[in-house]
Amino acid sequence: MASLSLAGRTALVTGASGGIGGAISRELAQRGAHVVLTGRNQARLASLQQQLYQPSNHRISQCDLTCTSSVNALVKSLDSIDILVNAAGVSRDSLAMRQREDELDEMMQINLRSAMKLCKQVSPMMVRKRSGCIINVSSVVGIHGNVGQSGYAATKAGLIGFTRSLAKELGPRGVRANVIAPGFIDTEMTRNILQQPATKSLIDRIPLQHLGTVDDVAHATAFIAEAKYMTGQVLIIDGGLF
């Protein structure tokens, strides 16, 4: 049974066609939120919508996160946004001295700039109501770094700094901003990373002795959405690794 603790709220989730974004969408819908799904894979979004609690309450909205006009159009198409979850992300792993410029640009655009654009467009809507919750999905790699992920780490670290600053700016206006920082979560994106020898050695040091699941991240996201006195925080979901 759904608890419906988020009933009446509209949640915009980017990266909803990915493992973490999809799980977050399911959890928020289960708690009664109306979820707007955006992502690259429209077929997956359509399938996800049918999996959500009361599918007709939710909708798919196409958006090119690298395009400012597309982001603006998405926000303008919504009457209200109570919860913004920036879960879109890509990783193009390479040693810093070998990182291609196009790979670095893609990570900057998707992991950092798209979140900043959406926060900029959504914030005034939330400020007018003196209510709202922004949740940006970063990574423990953005805090501790990792071999072969310097570019990815830079974008995720930037997202943390941006969110903490945003929390200070928007807090007096009733809007909260927090970060989820997952560790090693079993997703399609991380499976390639997990094959690297340096990463395998880290997994052996996880105190809970296993990878996290997308549902672990989704539950944490829902907790933040409901935690009305929590802002400017980084909630780490890593099984105790760091």
Automatic annotation (TrEMBL):
<keyword id="KW-0560">Oxidoreductase</keyword>
<dbReference type="InterPro" id="IPR002347">
    <property type="entry name" value="SDR_fam"/>
</dbReference>
<dbReference type="InterPro" id="IPR020904">
    <property type="entry name" value="Sc_DH/Rdtase_CS"/>
</dbReference>
<keyword id="KW-0521">NADP</keyword>
<feature type="domain" description="Ketoreductase">
    <location>
        <begin position="9"/>
        <end position="187"/>
    </location>
</feature>
<protein>
    <recommendedName>
        <fullName>3-oxoacyl-[acyl-carrier-protein] reductase</fullName>
        <ecNumber>1.1.1.100</ecNumber>
    </recommendedName>
</protein>
<comment type="similarity">
    <text>Belongs to the short-chain dehydrogenases/reductases (SDR) family.</text>
</comment>
<dbReference type="GO" id="GO:0032787">
    <property type="term" value="P:monocarboxylic acid metabolic process"/>
</dbReference>
<dbReference type="InterPro" id="IPR057326">
    <property type="entry name" value="KR_dom"/>
</dbReference>
<dbReference type="GO" id="GO:0004316">
    <property type="term" value="F:3-oxoacyl-[acyl-carrier-protein] reductase (NADPH) activity"/>
</dbReference>
<dbReference type="InterPro" id="IPR050259">
    <property type="entry name" value="SDR"/>
</dbReference>
<dbReference type="Pfam" id="PF13561">
    <property type="entry name" value="adh_short_C2"/>
</dbReference>
<dbReference type="InterPro" id="IPR036291">
    <property type="entry name" value="NAD(P)-bd_dom_sf"/>
</dbReference>
